[in-house]
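User: Could you go from structure to sequence for me? I need the amino acid at each position, not a summary. C-alpha cells:
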C-alpha cells in the first residue's frame, strides 16, 4: 500500500527550489531547441528532392504533414501538461523532436521524411503549450508579460534559427543532409540534460484522458476572434509557402543553388513575425488588424513582384513584411483572447486559435504544390499571392464596415 503524494498547487515544486531565472532559462532553451528542429529541413528540400526523386508537390506535402501534426497535437494533447505536469510533457516533446531528427538522419526515402515531419509537428504542439505554461508558472505576477515575451522569443527564435543554421551548415560545412541533424540532436540532448534540473511547476497530476480538444470561442469575442484568426491565418499561409518552396523558387527562378540564402529568407520571415507580436503591444487594438491587413497586401504584392521580376530584394522585403503583419495579427488575436476569455477557458480558446492558424498554413501549401505541377512555379505563386491579398482586403472591409458583428 502506498501513501498518496501531497497535493501540489500551481507554482510549487516537487523538487528542491532553484532560481526561477535559471529554471526559466532551461525551459526557454528546451522550447527553442525543439522549434529549431521543425525548420531544419527548409533549406534542404531541393537536396532531398534531387536525391529521392520526388516532385515539387511532394515537397509541399512533406511540409504540410508537419502542420497537420501540430493541429492534431493541439486538438488531442492540448491539456496534457495540466493533467500530468509540465516536465513530463516537455520531456515527451524533446523525445519526439529527437525521434524526428533521427529519422531524417537515417532517411533514404519519402516515407521516412513524412514520418519525421509528423513527429516534429507533435513535438511543436506539445512544447508550445507546456513550455509557455511553465514560463508563466515560474514568473512572479508582475513579470507575466516578460514571461510571455520570453515564450515568443523562444518559439519564433527557434523557427528562425533552425532554417538559418541548417542553410549555413548545408552551404559551407559539408554533409548537408547529415550534419544539420547531428547538430539538432546535440541541441535536444543538451535540453534533455537541463530538464533534469527543472522543478515541476504545474498543478498536481489529475490523470490523463485522451480526448479531443473542444473548438469553442466565447460568443462575446467571436467576431473579433474570427477576424484576427483569418488575418493571422493568411500570414501563416504565406509563411508555410515560403518555408516549403523558397528553395525551389531560388533555384528555378533566380538560379541560386544556395541553401544559406534559403535559410536567410525564411529566417527573416520568422524573426519579423516575432517582432510583429511585440509591435502589436504598442498599437491601439483598433489599429492593429488594419495595419496587419495592409502589411499582408503589401507582402503579397512584393512576393508577386519577386516571382514576375525575378527579384531577390522583393522576396526578402515580402518575407519581412509578411512576418511583421502576421505577428501583429497573432498578437492582436491573443490580446482579444486574454481580455475576453475566463482563465479556466483560455487554454481551450488559444488552442482553437492556433489550430485555425496551422490549418491555414497546411492546406494552401498543398494547393500551391498542385498549381506548381499544373502551371509552373511563377503562375502558382502569383495566383496564391492574389488570393492572400484578396482575403486580407476582405477582412479589412469587415473592419471598416463593422461586419460581421463589428464591435
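Assistant: Here is the amino acid at each position, in order:
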Amino acid at each position: 500500500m502506498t501513501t498518496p503524494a501531497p497535493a501540489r498547487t500551481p507554482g510549487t515544486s516537487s523538487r528542491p527550489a532553484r532560481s526561477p531565472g535559471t529554471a526559466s532559462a532551461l525551459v526557454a532553451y528546451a522550447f527553442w531547441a525543439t522549434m529549431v528542429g521543425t525548420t531544419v529541413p527548409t533549406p534542404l528540400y531541393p537536396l532531398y528532392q534531387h536525391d529521392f526523386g520526388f516532385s515539387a508537390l511532394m515537397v509541399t506535402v512533406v511540409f504540410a504533414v508537419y502542420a497537420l501534426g501540430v493541429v492534431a497535437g493541439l486538438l488531442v494533447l492540448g491539456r496534457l501538461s495540466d493533467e500530468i505536469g509540465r516536465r513530463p510533457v516537455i520531456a515527451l516533446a524533446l523525445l519526439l523532436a529527437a525521434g524526428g531528427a533521427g529519422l531524417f538522419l537515417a532517411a533514404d526515402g519519402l516515407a521516412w521524411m513524412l514520418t519525421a515531419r509528423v513527429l516534429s509537428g507533435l513535438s511543436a504542439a506539445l512544447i508550445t503549450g507546456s513550455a509557455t505554461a511553465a514560463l508563466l508558472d515560474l514568473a512572479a505576477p508582475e513579470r507575466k508579460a516578460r514571461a510571455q515575451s520570453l515564450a515568443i522569443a523562444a518559439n519564433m527564435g527557434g523557427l528562425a534559427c533552425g532554417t538559418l543554421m541548417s542553410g549555413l551548415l548545408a552551404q559551407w560545412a559539408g554533409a548537408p543532409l547529415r550534419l544539420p541533424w547531428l547538430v539538432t540532436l546535440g541541441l535536444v540532448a543538451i535540453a534533455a540534460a537541463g530538464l533534469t534540473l527543472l522543478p515541476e511547476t504545474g498543478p498536481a497530476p489529475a490523470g490523463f484522458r485522451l480526448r479531443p480538444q473542444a473548438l469553442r470561442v466565447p460568443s462575446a469575442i467571436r467576431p473579433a476572434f474570427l477576424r484576427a484568426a483569418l488575418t493571422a491565418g493568411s500570414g501563416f499561409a504565406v509563411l508555410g509557402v515560403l518555408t516549403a518552396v523558397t528553395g525551389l523558387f531560388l533555384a528555378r527562378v533566380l538560379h541560386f543553388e544556395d541553401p544559406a540564402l534559403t535559410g536567410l529568407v525564411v529566417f527573416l520571415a520568422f524573426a519579423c513575425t516575432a517582432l510583429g507580436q511585440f509591435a502589436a503591444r504598442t498599437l491601439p487594438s483598433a489599429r492593429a488588424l488594419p495595419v496587419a491587413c495592409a502589411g499582408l497586401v503589401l507582402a503579397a504584392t512584393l512576393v508577386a513582384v519577386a516571382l514576375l521580376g525575378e527579384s531577390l530584394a522583393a522576396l526578402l522585403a515580402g518575407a519581412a513584411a509578411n512576418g511583421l503583419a502576421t505577428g501583429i495579427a497573432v498578437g492582436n488575436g491573443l490580446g482579444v483572447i486574454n481580455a475576453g476569455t475566463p482563465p479556466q477557458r483560455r487554454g481551450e480558446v488559444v488552442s482553437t486559435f492556433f489550430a485555425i492558424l496551422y490549418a491555414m498554413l497546411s492546406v494552401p501549401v498543398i494547393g500551391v504544390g498542385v498549381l506548381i505541377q499544373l502551371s509552373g512555379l511563377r503562375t502558382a505563386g502569383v495566383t496564391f499571392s492574389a488570393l492572400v491579398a484578396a482575403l486580407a482586403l476582405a477582412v479589412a472591409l469587415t473592419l471598416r464596415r463593422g461586419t460581421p458583428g463589428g464591435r
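One structural detail worth keeping in mind: The chain has 14 helices and no strands.
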